[in-house]
């Protein structure tokens, strides 16, 4: 049996589908777990354990992934289900009584239920998606709250109303902040980590001694090659990373002593966050702060850190902890191949740390962090950190900032997977991609960052790690999207907004040449050996960005500046012609190309002949207009609903969905993507 005090983290519902439901748990005692599933409010169990994987992290910490399959057929969809965990005794009998007690004591079930609940999307039903990123314990600039807890309130108010209750929770990066750690959080992490390590603390390579609180900025810079400017309390050991996850997901792990006021609301909101994850299938992808700020910012950065034994060790520790607490459960079918290797590597971590480095490094090299959800539409999570490419990826000569978020080679397996998704879904639903940073941002903000791209170091005030900082990479991504309708769920930038964008591709010599560089790349509508300059296709995008659940752009001054820049933007459009390409204001409307001229202070749009202009692309965006949500700086959590080709989106702010930031998009209509001018 287990008591509430024996639960380090969880339970967290992970990948869930009609054939199988996965539940993750971490305990301070080694036990044999059993899992059951039934329809809520009934007595008959219709699902039982098929596989339980256990991995020992420390002498006093064990992580489990419990997979439960139907006893016959498939789990019902569109029906509220509940699950229970039990421990198997020496007699082979499972005891589930303790789980019900833990659920009651820690408030893990919603009113009216004794056990945690979930539901699986029914065929033809809406997919309700909570999404967000960037959860820093001590940020209160965006509000003294944790927006991830707002998701719990949404479930609480719709426990049995499945049309409104979230189906899944998607976390798109920076679930922990490994570099930017408050003193109070560091002290709590140190307390938990010391207990976990016991008498066998981790030894750093080359006999390096890890400094204490407030002393790690210069140390991580000199010893590890890191570039974070907020690294006074940077996490280093595997135990510290594990401890941070424990503090991020369970109020019980926090020491009983008082903590700083900046952290109190984060700590006190943890029961709601824990209940949300115990009752909602959850999927997670990393970004940089899960490891270290600027992680793989450029090829040169990666090479610099890799040449450092300490830097390599810290990244290995971070990725191993990420695998256990986040990646494990995204796709148990993939995890099944990795679990034995991870188990063995962690067992030998203190005596043979190289093996653990190989396990997580190989996974990065193989581009295997990516995964997709078992939903309609499918949500595909992009890894934009571990397979970065050169700034001029095809030439492979410039290793400086900013790098391709995914190298050209890394795009190939991703493209093949996305093509398979589209083959199954057809055009009945959009292709949905989850990526850490927004693909389409505020031009006024992005252009300021692009202006300094390559001219300042990664530790600057500006963030050059997004898509807009590398136009060649952005165009590669947009071209790979072909003529699809695409929704992008993202975060990272510490504010929320929505935007629509379109990307028209033309049969130009440059476009043909670029496509020829990507193996297997085809362009719809291309024929013959000579470019015709004709319009080939247009991709349409909806960008939904929620960030941060607990991290804002900063204090009053920076917020005012960025809000002002964002609110000055509306509709924009640019044509890119020739090689090299320079943006020129343009609109592509009803199959016709227009560019502006100014006559006596008045802007006039004139139609242009495609053969004369020879455009490669026309990129158009609508943002901060009546059809889109404006810039939101407060802590927020996104809530998107998908039904057929329609998308409804809102943001939970100040604990509720505000109708004023609710927007809807219909790919069956071109209204949201048709330029207003000319």
TrEMBL record:
It comes from Mycolicibacterium vanbaalenii (strain DSM 7251 / JCM 13017 / BCRC 16820 / KCTC 9966 / NRRL B-24157 / PYR-1). This is PhoD-like phosphatase metallophosphatase domain-containing protein.
